[in-house]
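Project standup — Tuesday

K.O.: blocked on the structure for the chain from last sprint. Re-posting the sequence here as requested.
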Amino acid sequence: MRKRFSVLSGAILASATALTASPVAADTLVEIESERIDETVPLPTFMVDASWPRLPGDITIGQAPGLAVDKDDNIWVLNRPNSLDGTDIGLDSGQSAACCKAPPHVLQFDPEGNLLRSWGGPELAPGDSTIEGSGRDAVESGDEQWPANVHGLYVDDDLNVWLGGNGTGDHVVLKFTADGEFISQIGRRQTTEGNSSEQYLGNPADIAADKDVVLIADGYINKRIIGLDESEDFAFSYLFGAYGEDPDAATRDEPFDQSQATSTGDGGADPASKSFGDIIHCVVRGPEDTVYVCDRRNNRLQLFRETGDGVEFVQDIVIADGTGGTRSASDVAFSPDGKYVYVADMMNGRVWILLRESHDILGWFGRNGRYPGQFIWLHSVDVDSQGNVYTTEVSTGRRVQRFVITGMAE
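H.V.: unblocked you, prediction finished:
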């Protein structure tokens, strides 16, 4: 039965204030569409905070393909200034407009939604480049290492920021300090050697850098997960494809472009495929040495467990089997106690809520749309220490949202 769990009442607002890091004003909370599927298990309930974040009055966010909540509950968003055109950023494009200008790529917000830091751009990364020509005829040369199209964000416990890219030639993961000072990189732009390479990447989509072995979802040109040991100068550790086997699927021809995000060249999703599909969209470490991989094209998560020298396959977790278009398994996050798994579903515009113990689906919230609590190309999801859920959107969504936990449906 579909219902709206969140009701504007004194009890719910008191619960929201107690559970979140800062008080929530009643007039900023908006009900969201949701459904409880299994009524035998308690389910977290949410409302969306329509006032979050509190952006400076002269900027607007572009496509937001990366999201991370750090150890201090500050929220980091990776956005694409290059996705904004002259009508979006009149202050930058000389259109004599009242607003706006593009922000840098990396934005850090406090829990209240205030902008704390912002940085990004080619000047922060090694190398340089020269652009000859203009528009579609532009040709890049040189060894610039900042991605042409950023994708994927991870913030580790030392507040170092990791990001990748899925644009033309973006075969690199970069690591920076919280203030945007370059530290190191994995791979190299314009260089890729396929699924078996122990050194180079193929349009990495996501990073998990919370242990010595950094895991990378090498998933827009290549179709694999690769582990590299940071303590050994990113020496090769291991790699794997679907079911923990060698990644035997063919790589994608370069370049990846937006039209391929909804392509169905393989005839549709196959949740039983022995190979990863052609967008390996996330790699996320979970509780108890687990690793979740988003095989987005096949509408599934694959669950693994780290063994010390690699991984072992545990199970397939199918999300909205039969979904077409951009498909259903885009990103994964966990409740603070590890009891619940949140899965971002890009095509259906939902956040699915699973019981981690069994990975049974308990319910969902959200729908496709442009109003608070709705999604256009839902891309990333993460959770703070209080249980509040954050999401970002790409394509024409260009948004970050905060879903305030209001209690439990018993």
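K.O.: great, moving the ticket to review. The chain has a mean pLDDT of 91. The chain is about 5% helix and 40% strand.
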